[in-house]
Amino acid sequence: MDAVPSDADEAVDALMTMSKVLVGITASSLVSTLDTVTLPQFRILVLLAGQARTRPSDLARQLSVQPSGITRMLDRLVAAGFVLRSLSDRNSREMDLALTVTGEALVADVLAQREDDLRHLMSDLTASEMSLVVSGLRLLTARSSGLHHPAALLGW
Q1: pLDDT at 152 over 70
Q2: Alpha-carbon distance values, 30 to 9, 36, 58, 84, 153 (Å)
Q3: Please, are residues 83 and 100 in contact by the beta-carbon 8 Å criterion?
Q4: Which residues 6+ apart lie within 8 Å of 32 measured at CB?
Q5: Residue 3 banded pLDDT, cuts 50, 70, 90
Q6: Which candidate, 30, 98, 110, places its Cα nearest to that of 59?
Q7: Cβ distance 63 to 44 under 8 Å?
Q8: Where are the domains of the chain?
Q9: What are 63's strand-pairing partners?
Q10: What is the residue-averaged pLDDT of the chain?
Q11: Is the pLDDT confidence value at 49 over 70?
Q12: What class has domain 32-143?
């Protein structure tokens, strides 16, 4: 006799399926950038987009890598015109990083495409369905803080 799936099993199955949809939407939004920047480089751009200016060592800490580990990526992003590197106002021995207008536009375009796809996904939901989705997602987001790798830690 087959075991009847529990509510938790059904919820996990639904979440696994939805995670594939969300990964697909995310990947689709990045396709146009992959001839310009790599995925790790885009991650750096997203982190920089959320900050006015940052030091390479602070960025490395956010990425959980050694500062030397991002130097070449930053060199490429500076050369491509996505990142500006300048002497720090706080300490003349340090450099600050910031997105250029081109870097800001790249991040904005990807996020706008992702937002458009998500709006399309939800476009046929009724008000009560939308309310259920929002409540469930907020609950899961709040509960995600106990995970090893919440999205905020990964810089996405």
Answers
A1: no
A2: 31, 10, 25, 22, 20
A3: yes
A4: 109, 110, 113
A5: low
A6: 98
A7: yes
A8: 32-143
A9: none
A10: 86
A11: yes
A12: mainly alpha
